[in-house]
Amino acid sequence: KTPTPPQSTMVRIKNRYILFELLYPPTECNAADDVIFQHRNPNKLKAVISPKTIIYELRKQIKLYLGDQGLGKANITLQIKYFNNVTSVGILKCSAEYYKTVVLGLSMIQSFNNDNHKIIVNVVKLSGTINKLQDHSIKRNKELIKRIEFQTRSNNNLGLHMKKRQSEQLNQFINEESKQIEVVDEPAEME
Q1: Is the dihedral of CA 146, 149, 152, 155 positive or negative?
Q2: DSSP H helical segments within the chain, as ranges?
Q3: Which residues touch 74 (CB under 8 Å, ≥6 apart)?
């Protein structure tokens, strides 16, 4: 009697999706009238930030703090599924087992390409499906637009009488924030 070979069982790799945003802290101390917009200023560093730059910097930080073993574990399914350069919002796909390593790496990023401009990576939400992150991002963007519009009104019941903003940058920012997130089918890959 010949023994039957063991049946191979397929193990599904579970993924987590991380919704993150890049914030740009102001370099000089300005009035607190436009704090929300200052951290999301659309004309700071946008040319140098791409999905490849984010992945490169993330891998660099994980390797720096956790070594080659931590990078190898976190790198299993690591890829950027979506990144909008105008709104600085992105979705990152990673292994469910090592998502904490990826979140740690994201929090350690302080600048891109060793630039002097500081960056804060804010991890907004973690989910098992990308659709839930899209829904959350759309809801969050609508609230952000309401806050910016409230802040720029001349009478906002806060005792702050600000000038109505009619700048191109703010209008472009609001238009980009109000669009729905579309996930890229072809993720940005690194060499």
Answers
A1: negative
A2: 35-39, 51-74, 99-108, 130-152, 168-178
A3: 62, 66, 94, 95, 98, 101, 102, 105
Listed in sequence order, the residues at least 6 apart from 180 whose beta carbon sits closer than 8 Å to its beta carbon are: 134, 138
pTM of the model: 0.73
Q: Do 42 and 56 touch, CB atoms closer than 8 A?
A: no
- Compute the average pLDDT of residues 32-37: 54
* Residues 76 and 98 sit within 8 Å (Cβ to Cβ): yes
Dihedral over Cα of 63, 65, 67, 70: its sign: negative
DSSP codes of every residue in 74-96: HTSS-EEEEEETTTTEEEEEEES
Mean pLDDT across the stretch 120-145? 89
Q: Where do we find the tokens 């960056």?
A: 119
CB atoms within 10 A of CB 156: 13
Q: How are the residues of the chain apportioned to helix, strand and coil, as percentages rounded to the nearest 5? A: 40, 15, 40
pLDDT digits (tens, 9 = 90+) for 48-95: 688 999 999 999 999 999 999 999 988 888 999 998 887 788 999 999
User: What is the token pair recorded at 11?
Assistant: 């193990």
